[in-house]
Design goal:
Oligomer: single chain
Order of helices and strands: EEEEEHEEEHEEHHH
Helix content: 25-40%
Shape: globular
Distance between the termini: 48 Å
Strand content: 25-35%
Radius of gyration: 18 Å
Largest sheet: 7 strands, mixed, barrel
Number of domains: 2
Length: 222
Amino acid sequence: MSLSNPLTLLSGGRPGIRCTIQTDVSEIRDNSCNSCLEFSASDETLDRYGEIISVAGWKLDTYLRNPVFQNAHQYGDILFTLGRAVVTEVRAGKLYQQIEFATDANPMARIAYNLYKGKFLSAVSVGFIPLRWEDGTEKTTYRCKYLEQELLEVSAVAIPANPNALALGLKSGAVDKSDVKDLADLLHALVAPKSDEGGSPTLDFRLQTSDFLRQLHSILRS
């Protein structure tokens, strides 16, 4: 099997695969966590690479040692930590997670929480190491089906890659404009020139942040 298309380096520097999974998103019914949402994989959907991930094949031990929920697989700054998974398990044929968003500590997490809660976002991205798989044939719809895979990371997707979701969230009232402004102010402070060079962010972080700031300013002006 060739893994050339989706193969990438994951957070720990290990080669693996990242894949977007459509999810059903719902609030926690027992109100035990005011900033928690439930995520469950909708099905074993054929992805754009012609591959299927078997839900029963998830190995979760590695992920559970550091169950952070990141923004778009970014790990260069704690700003991109949106929360943590308080539950990750396979349940009723679905990969299920309960995510606690860091809404009190991170304005980006507040925005992400409200976009998911308002149904403007409905997917997450998983990074995993394939352990066992079977190749498809001319009689199957898939090119490859992963039978066992080790989960290493989970991220929100489309933040900030999809400014339309943020704009629609603002228009509907699901996202507060004050949260967007708070986030823009925080990013400005992070990338502003510092006299102490030891505290300066990397060039890559500056470029990513500058692009995100342009999107935020465009949305705030609309």
